[in-house]
Amino acid sequence: MEKRAVAILAILEKKLEGATIALHFTSPLELLIATILSAQCTDKRVNEVTPSLFKRFRAAEHYARADPAVLEEMIRPTGFYKNKAKAIVGCCAKIVSDYGGAVPSTVEALTTLPGVGRKTANVVLGSAFGQNAIAVDTHVKRVAYRLGLTGESNPDKVESDLQALIPLHRWTQTSLLLILHGRHTCRARKPQCDSCAVSHLCDYFRISVRNGTEVSG
User: Fold this and answer.
1) What does the alpha-carbon distance between residue 22 and residue 123 come to, in Å, rounded to a whole number?
2) Nearest-CA neighbor of 43 among 60, 56, 24, 61?
3) Cα–Cα distance between 193 and 47 in angstroms, integer?
4) Does the structure show a pLDDT above 80 at 216?
5) What whole-number distance in Å separates Cα of residue 189 and Cα of residue 13?
6) What are the extents of the domains in the chain?
7) How far apart are CA 94 and CA 72, in angstroms?
8) Predicted confidence (pLDDT) per residue in 35-60, tens digit
9) What's the pTM value of the predicted model, to 2 decimals?
10) Among 136, 160, 162, 174, which one is least packed by beta carbons within 10 Å?
11) Domains 2-16+135-209 and 28-127 belong to one CATH topology
């Protein structure tokens, strides 16, 4: 399976050359905030909200002492804004109290922050700190399952399965490639199997589409 995984990545790297994270940021803190906001929201909408947000709140301490009502109003377009505002304030308060105002750079430390799970932590580690990290969002989970790279639905187990298959130095890029492939081709409701560059290596296509039965994944 390792050889098939590497072959899939090679094809996607060629097709999606220059794949990078869609969220706009200039620091680990900005990416952390943007990733929290991206829950149940498009990256495009988050990128519309963050310029004014990042201009007003430049450091963790600024978010930690922010007026909740002001913060809520600024992030309202991203949805679930009350919960997100609470998470951001709590997260940044802990960054200030426990880490001297600097975003920590380990998954163990990041996941102690309010509103930060392994996916968010790995996004920050991979794209802001340049570490090797596989971030499993809904796209990565769906695409990895359909391709047959995992039989799991739990994100943490999917992450472990992918780590076992993918060379360490390709972990971060793997997440970015699977996310883009999931957004544009391997969509949740109508996967574009006819135009998929890796359909010949895909379990979903082999088992479901060729047999004329659609199986969700």
Assistant:
1) 11
2) 24
3) 30
4) no
5) 24
6) 2-16+135-209, 28-127
7) 19
8) 999 999 999 999 999 999 999 999 99
9) 0.93
10) 160
11) no
Task: Out of 3.50.50.60, 3.40.50.1470, 1.10.1670.10, 3.30.70.260, select the CATH number for domain 2-16+135-209.
Answer: 1.10.1670.10
Distance CA 100, CA 87 (A): 18
119 has catalytic annotation:
yes
Tokens 């002001």 locate to 70
Tokens of 77: 């377009």
**From 94, 137, 141, 161, the catalytic residue:** 137
Looking at residue 148, what DSSP letter applies?
A: T
Fold of 28-127: Endonuclease III; domain 1 (1.10.340)
Of 44, 55, 86, 119, which one is the catalytic site residue? 119
Residue 108 · residue 125 · CB < 8 Å: no
Condensed to tens digits (0 to 9), the pLDDT of residues 89-114 reads 999 999 999 999 999 999 999 999 99
Tokens of 101: 């105002």
Residue 190 is among the residues annotated as catalytic for this protein:
no
Residue (of 95, 93, 121) closest to 107 by Cα position: 121
